[in-house]
Design a protein that fits this description.
It is built from 18 helices and 12 strands. The protein is α/β, with parallel strands linked by helices and 573 residues long. It has a 6-stranded mixed sheet with strand order 6-9-10-3-11-12, sandwiched between helices. A hairpin with a 2-residue loop joins strand 4 and strand 5 (401-402). The longest helix is centred in the first third of the chain and has 51 residues, at 60-110.
């Protein structure tokens, strides 16, 4: 994310001004934190005195008194820590109120669409992380102060061993804060972009499928995922540096104290002082540094990101250019509408071929019905012709052009697709420009959509897909396909929810469509009878001809038409 120059400086200036206005709160915070520092000081000092002046010297009473003093210090420190929470609230809540004022003001003045997210999520996140940052930072400062004063009080030589690695680890961690914040911001931006992309995509999966945009959408989502993966890896690399800082600043002093024990004892450091130093490092400095690294390293960078977002100027959303549909493939003069040559297809390399060496030629203006048992491959054939599936062998040409050819075919499946918006927008989906109303009304009358069009309130009426019946959705899809520039129409049981009269009207309309060719996967025998030719799919015994021809030559066709009545007997069993 690009951050305008000077914004971090403005953020620091505002923070400094806010803190100056709350000096009394900061003084109370420091006063109660002194109790915590006193607890840390006595935790190691009292232990050293209890050993050196008490138990090792044979004075059990003195040793117990020093341990009792350490216990009282723990109680006082716990009381101080409890009071600290109230003071932190007095510091954090005004900051939250200021952020709320900023976000609401920007939303009202500039109609910022991100104001709601800022109020419901980012402001609360800023408050919680600010409280966490204040707590861990304050705890580390006062704990470190109490421990270092205690080490100096026990023996100044102990500081020579403990202080250098502690400073080195703290400095190494401080050096990671700015790049860590940048990478945290990049990761959050990538994560939000991916979430927004998926949130937009998931409700519109049917839109994506209906418009054939699967590859494009998959590429866009894949790019978002790759971006998030790269930012996550970059963020993880800095986690290694944080671990190194914790090792150097918190764990290395313990190792150095153990390694230098003979030297320290030789230079007058008492055994009690050594034990007290180990207590300072392991019980105070190491936990405080761990809290600082994990708390400030995560919450601090997140707080920086959130504050930058809440205080930045809103940016206008970039509008994606509306993609134009490719121009329709011009049919060469004299070329057949559809040519299948040795067409072979199977689902998977080890699967049985659904189609095996199929040859078929349809002239322009032809009307073909495809019949056969369920699962024989009728829908597979339409998917191949539409370019949705790729054959293992053979070729497919539509008007002389290899499939897929831009806007050469229009496929209407059994489950008709209707999207939100107006009826005219639904019907114009396959057209580059809006359809003139006169043409739209004429086609609606031809296909049989006019009663539904009037009931909905005209072409500009809004459409609720859930409120439409399956047959009404099919009528809309059929009219849309009729209006498309594609010359070859593929009806894959696209009229199965219509009554026989409505089905006959729609099929006759497509059969008479100027310059059009019709391939119908027949749902009723009446649909097959309306076709000039019928393709009977029967595995290896596929046959093609007229109704009378097939009654003589195809046993399957005779079986499918046995006992037929025009309104009841379906072909696909």
């Amino acid at each position: 994310m690009d951050v305008p120059d000077g914004r971090p400086q403005r953020l620091r200036t505002r923070a400094a001004r806010f803190l100056r206005m709350r000096r009394r709160v900061l003084l109370h915070l420091g006063a109660w934190s002194v109790l915590e520092a006193g607890q840390t000081f006595l935790a190691g000092y009292a232990l050293a005195r209890a050993l050196d002046d008490g138990f090792l010297a044979g004075d059990v009473r003195t040793g117990l008194l020093w341990l009792g003093a350490a216990g009282l210090a723990v109680c006082a420190g716990a009381y101080g820590t409890g009071r600290v929470y109230g003071v932190v609230a007095a510091l954090v809540e005004p900051a939250r109120d200021r952020l709320v004022t900023t976000v609401v003001g920007r939303g009202v003045r500039e109609a910022d669409t991100g104001a709601l997210s800022g109020l419901t999520q980012q402001v609360e996140l800023a408050r919680d992380t600010l409280a966490g940052v204040v707590m861990v930072s304050r705890s580390f400062l006062f704990t470190a102060a109490g421990a270092l004063i205690g080490l100096f009080s026990l023996a100044p030589l102990l500081l020579v061993v403990v202080l250098p690695p502690l400073l080195a680890g703290t400095a190494l961690f401080a050096a990671t804060l700015r790049p860590l914040a940048r990478r945290q911001e990049a990761f959050l931006t990538a994560d939000e972009a991916l979430a927004q992309e998926l949130g937009t995509l998931c409700p519109g999966l049917r839109d994506v499928t209906a418009s054939g945009a699967e590859e494009r959408v998959a590429a866009d989502v894949g790019e978002r995922i790759d971006t998030e993966l790269r930012t996550a890896r970059a963020l993880a690399h800095w986690s290694v540096t944080r671990t190194a800082a914790l090792t150097v600043g918190g764990e290395l002093p313990v190792v150095l104290l153990l390694l230098t024990t003979p030297w320290l004892l030789a230079h007058g450091v008492t055994p009690g002082a050594l034990v007290g130093a180990l207590a300072y490092v392991t019980q105070s400095l190491l936990p405080a540094l761990q809290n600082l690294v994990h708390g400030l390293g995560t919450s601090g960078s997140r707080l920086t990101v959130v504050l930058r977002r809440l205080t930045r100027a809103p940016k206008g959303r970039a509008q994606r250019p509306r993609s134009r549909q490719p121009a329709a493939t011009p049919p060469p003069s004299g070329a057949p509408a559809l040519t299948l040559t040795s067409l072979t297809f199977a689902y998977g390399p080890a699967g049985e071929p659904i189609l095996n060496g199929l040859d078929l030629t349809l002239p322009t203006g032809a009307h073909l019905a495809v019949v056969g048992p369920s699962g024989i491959g009728k829908s597979t054939l339409t998917g191949l012709v539409a370019g949705l599936l790729t054959p293992q062998h053979g070729t497919i040409h539509v008007h002389g052009h290899p499939v897929p050819a831009p806007q050469a075919t229009v496929l209407i499946p059994q489950e008709a697709y209707v999207h939100g918006g107006t009826l005219a927008e639904n019907l114009s989906l396959f057209r580059e420009d809006p359809v003139p109303e006169a043409e739209l009304l004429a086609v609606a009358e031809t296909v049989g959509l006019t009663p539904l069009l009037h009931r909905l309130g005209g072409p500009d009426a809004p459409v609720d897909p859930a409120a439409l019946s399956a047959g009404e959705r099919q009528l809309i899809a059929l009219t849309r396909a009729y209006l498309s520039p594609a010359p070859l129409a593929l009806l894959d049981e696209a009229t199965c929810h219509l009554d026989p009269e409505a089905e006959a009207r729609a099929e006759r309309a497509f059969a008479a469509r100027p310059g059009g060719t019709l391939l119908v996967v027949a749902h009723r025998i009446s649909s097959a009878l309306r076709a000039e030719r019928i393709l009977v799919m029967d595995g290896a015994r596929t046959a093609c001809g007229t109704h009378d021809d097939l009654l003589r030559t195809s046993a399957l066709y005779r079986q499918l038409t046995t006992g037929w009545t025009p309104h009841q007997t379906p072909l696909a069993r």
